[in-house]
Amino acid sequence: MMDTRGARTLQQAAAPAAAYTAAELGQLLGMTKRGMNHRATREDWLHRPRQSNGGGREYPFGTLPEDIKLAIISKLAESKPRPQPLPQDLDERSRDRALCRIMILRLFDAWRASRPDLKNTESRTLFCAAYRANEIENTPDWLRAGLPRVSPNSLLNWRAALDNGGAARLSGSYGKRRGQRRISSDPEVVDLIRGLLYKHPQISCNSILEALTARLPEDRVPAERTLNRWVAEYRREHESLLLSVANPDGWRSKCLAATGDASAHVIRLNQVWEYDSTVADVMLADNRRHVIVAIIDVYSRRVRFLVSRSSKASAVAALTRRCMLEWGVPEIAKTDNGSDYVSHHMQRIFGELGIDQKLCTPFQPQQKPHIERVFKTFLHGTFELLDGFVGHNVIDRKAIESRRSFAARLRKKKYKDTPVELRLTAEELQSFCDEWAVNMYERREHGSLGMSPMQRAAGWTGPVRRIENERALDVLLRPAPSQDGWRTVGKKGVQAGYYYDHPSLRVEALVPGGRVRVLLDETDAARVTCFNERGEWVCDAICPELAGVSREELAAAVKRAQKKALAEDRKDLRGAAKRAQVDTILTDIRRKAATDAAKVTPLPHRSESYSTPALEEAARAADAGATPKAAPLTEAQQKSHEELVRELAGGGERVVQLPPMKDERKARFLRAWRIEQRIEAGQAVDTEEALWLGRYQATPEYKSMRGIFEDFGVEAFN
What we know:
Layout: E1 19-20, H1 22-29, H2 33-43, E2 48-49, E3 57-60, H3 66-77, H4 92-113, H5 120-132, H6 141-146, H7 152-165, H8 178-184, H9 187-199, H10 205-215, H11 224-237, H12 239-246, H13 248-254, E4 272-279, E5 291-297, E6 303-308, H14 313-327, E7 332-335, H15 344-352, E8 356-359, H16 369-379, H17 394-414, H18 426-441, H19 453-458, H20 470-476, E9 486-488, E10 494-496, E11 498-500, H21 503-508, E12 515-520, E13 527-531, E14 537-542, H22 544-547, H23 551-579, H24 585-598, H25 613-624, H26 635-649, H27 663-680, H28 687-697, H29 700-712
Parallel strand pairs: 4-7, 7-8
Antiparallel strand pairs: 1-3, 2-3, 4-5, 5-6, 9-12, 10-11, 12-13, 13-14
C-alpha cells in the first residue's frame, strides 16, 4: 500500500531555488559533487555560469531531469508538517479511494513545481490531459487501474477537502448500499452466488443473474447493478480463496506462505541437484518450440541448460553428463514424476552411479523451488528479446501476433517483396542459454547467497567426487533399447533393430539362450556394447551390414571361437570324469546295493501246499518226459573242444577282421570328412557341398561310418 501521508502544496512547501550547483544538488540528494558532475556531463544537462560568488556552473531548476526535480520537491517538503493519516475505521474500498486521490495530488504538485510559469487553472487542465494520455512520469499501475482519469474540478475539490478536513474527507465513504444489505441477508441467494463462483470461477454477473432468476421468485432477485457491486466486493475480499479455486498453481506461486528456507539443509557442494524441463517461449527456425532441460546445484546455485526437440531421457542424460564432468557427481537428484525422469534409462544411470533420486510429490512443483525460480528469472529476462519470442501466455502471444500481422500488412503495402523473418536455430538458442548461465547469472550476486554462484562454488574447500574416465561415463550413459536393453543371444547374435554378433558372445553364452544387456552407441549405429547378467563387460558387438564387414568372415570367426570354447570345456569335462572314475560308478552302485541287501534278511512266512487238478496233471507230464542225460562226446568233438579252450585261454591278441566295405560308401564318407575339415579350418565351402553334407550327415550310413572312423581312424578307409 502507498504511504497515507498527504503531500503539501507547492505554496505550503519550501519553494525550490532557481538554480543549483553540483555541490548543492549532491548535498540535497545525498550524493557526492563528483557523482553529480559525472551524471550532468553524461546526460548533457543545460547549465550557465554561476550567478553568485564562487565561480563554476549552475543548473537551472526548470531544465533538470524530472527525477531530480521530484527528489528536490520531496526533500524540501519533508520538513513541513503532514496532514492527518487516514482513519483506521474506514473500510478497504474507502481507504483505496482516498489513497488514489492523495497520490493524484502528489503527482500534480510535482508536475506543477516544474512549471512555475503556468496559471492555476491552466496547470490543472494540462495535468488532467497529460494524465489521461499516460504522460505523467512515475504513475504506478495500481493508481491508473483504480483512477484511470481525473478532471480539473476534481483536483480543485480534492485540494480543498484535504486542506479543510484531512485525508478522511477524500475517502468518499457513503455507507452501505441498501440493496447489498438485502443480498447479504438472504442466505439462499448468498449460497447460490458463492456456489456458482466456486464451480465456475470465471462466471459473469449476467450469468449469475440468470441463475437467480431461474431459481428464485422475482421479489427476491436483486437488481443488476446491486448484484454487480456485491459480486465485485466479494471477489475483492476473497481474492486469495477464489484464486486457489480457479488457478491452484497461480495461488501457490502468488499466495502460498514461503517463510522457511528450502535450502537450509543443503550444506555441501553437489549435495542436491534439482532437475526440470519447460517448453521455451520462442519459435525456432524449424517452426517448432523446443524444450529446455535445466539442472541447478542448490548449494552454489550454478545452473546449466540443454535445448532439445522434446524432454526425453537421452536429453536428461546428456545434460547430466555435462554437469558431472564440469561440477562433479551429485549425491541427490531431485526430479518430478515425468516419464523422462522415471524411465528405465535414468533409473539405471542414477543407480549405477550411486546417485539417490528423490521424486517430488505429484503436482507439487514447490518441492524443487530453486529450479522453478531460476527458470522464471531466465525466461522473463533478456530471453524476451530473442527473435521469435511468442510470449509467456495466451494474452501475450495474441498481442505479439496482432502486432506482427499489422507490421506485415504495412510491409506488404510498402514493399512488393516481403522479407522472410529470421529466427534462431536450436544451436543458436543453446549458445544463448550457455552464455546467460555462465556470463550473466553465474557471475551476478545472488540475493539469498550474498555472493555470486561462481564465488560460492569457488569457496567450497571440501572434496568433490569426479569421474576420471570420461569414456567409461559415455558408455554408462548410452541409451538402451526396449526391455531395458536385455536381449537373448540367438543363433544370429543379439537383435536391436539389426543383428549384432561377436565371438565373445559365444564364449559368454555357449548355446543360444544366454542373456546380455545391450547399450546403443549413438555415435556409431554399427556397434552395441554388451554386458552380462553380472554387470561385466562382454564385448562390443557389430552389425556386418552397417560396419561394412563380410558376414561370412564374421560367421567363421564366431564359429571358431565357439568351437574353441567348446573344445576347452569338453577337455575340462573329460578331466573331471577321469578324476572322478565315472566308468566304474555302476559297479560301485551295484556293490553298494548288494551290501545293503545282505544286511537285511526277511522273516519266513507260514506256508501251505497249494495244488489244482491242472497242476497235478502237469506234474505227471513232467515226470513222464524228463530230460535224459547227455551222451558222451566223440573223439573228434573232444579234440575240437580242447583246441577252442586253448585258443581262448592263450591270452594272445586277436585280430578282428572288419567286414568288407563297398568303395562308394568309403568315397562318400571321405568326401564328407574332407568338407568338415575345410569348415573347421575356416575355409569357404560351396552352398551345394554344404547342403549335400547336411543331408548325408542325417543318414544311417554316415552314423555307422562315423563310428568306425572314431574307433580306427582314417586308415580304415584307405
